[in-house]
């Protein structure tokens, strides 16, 4: 028998037994006392006792209802929820919302359930990403290796008979080995960033000199290319602390992405703004853009969104994750604003050195 039912049954039986006993006692008092005054006093006393007994039974019954509603039923719900969680169902919700100790305990239990579910969902998502990463890396490694093997076998078999063809084969082999090198370097750098072992050579520089050094090589590279690169000058001149080599990697990644996925004709615009405590750098392209579903996750490790753009974001989904970590190591922020068909706008901010 359930605890709440047993509790109510006990109080009811107490009343059933106790009240008749009082009535029998009153009857006995009437027979025992022949003196009317003594009999009346005894009867009144017994009626008082009876009234108190009835009041006690009523209070006990009401108390049983309160305890059942506020304690026993919530405990029953918690027990059922615990069994559901034990069986792997984390969608069960605790409905007790009384503003008492039991209600607060139920709310805390429900918060714990929700956080456990969130943690397990994140773990499952990470595991899926990890498995996809392994598959992607296997594909990314296998593709250039297969290509290299084919061209090497072509050289060995004498397919490339003239010097021009040999030079072409060697150029392709070099290109594929460079691709492998970049992939391995991405994995190595990300591993160092995750473990905190990547050494940053941060020095104080003038932001104008720094930006000129970052952007000038791209202006030379795109001068004869089918890409219109617009750089809005002058750059702000403020003291900043940066690791030029690491930040060059960030610019390389973002600008190369913009180049690959810009429109036709391709247009890339680089602008900067002095925001008091920050230097803001914006790189815009007129390309295919990024879907709203992918935008919030672009900088997460191992994330590969829309396949048409996934190669641009680090191959194995690490390129932008590395950029994010590098910028954050500088105390800055990186983000993106984009809509499908409207291009993408990547921005990053670097903190200005405060003067004493």
TrEMBL record:
Residues 136-354 form the Histidine kinase domain. Its EC number is 2.7.13.3. It is an enzyme of class 2 (transferase). Pfam families: HAMP, HATPase_c, HisKA. The chain crosses the membrane at residues 7-29, 41-64. It comes from Brevibacillus panacihumi. One of its GO terms (cellular component) is plasma membrane. GO terms for molecular function: ATP binding; phosphorelay sensor kinase activity. This is histidine kinase. It is a multi-pass membrane protein. It catalyses: ATP + protein L-histidine = ADP + protein N-phospho-L-histidine. SUPFAM superfamilies: ATPase domain of HSP90 chaperone/DNA topoisomerase II/histidine kinase (SSF55874), HAMP domain-like (SSF158472), Homodimeric domain of signal transducing histidine kinase (SSF47384). The lineage of its organism: Bacteria, Bacillati, Bacillota, Bacilli, Bacillales. Keywords: ATP-binding, Cell membrane, Kinase, Membrane, Nucleotide-binding, Phosphoprotein, Transferase, Transmembrane, Transmembrane helix, Two-component regulatory system. It comes from the Bacteria. It is found in: Cell membrane.
